[in-house]
Amino acid sequence: MTSTIRVDWPACRARGLCHELLPEVIDLDEWGYPVVTGTVTAELLSDARAAVRACPQLALRLVG
Ligand code: SF4
User: How confident is the model at residue 31 (pLDDT cuts 50, 70, 90)?
Assistant: First the structure.
């Protein structure tokens, strides 16, 4: 089963930490806002959980 990352846009402050922690799934747009480019596979699950926990705005959620 794969999961995905959802972003709470009003909460996000475009700090880009999520991209540093999970570059396989999260890219950044030109303003530094995250762009989810892929799904969270089983191999990426622990990195995805770490990115969700690390977001200073609590703007990320792992779904699925
Ligand atoms: S770590 Fe959180 S606040 Fe920073 S860009 Fe990612 S979602 Fe937005």
Answer: very high
- Cβ distance 1 to 16 under 8 Å? no
Domain positions in the chain are 4-63
Ligand 1 mutation pick, 19, 25, 60, 61, max ligand atoms within 8 A of CB: 60
pTM exceeds 0.85:
yes
Tell me, using a 6 A CB cutoff, whether residue 59 lines ligand 1. yes
CATH-assigned architecture of domain 4-63: 2-Layer Sandwich (3.30)
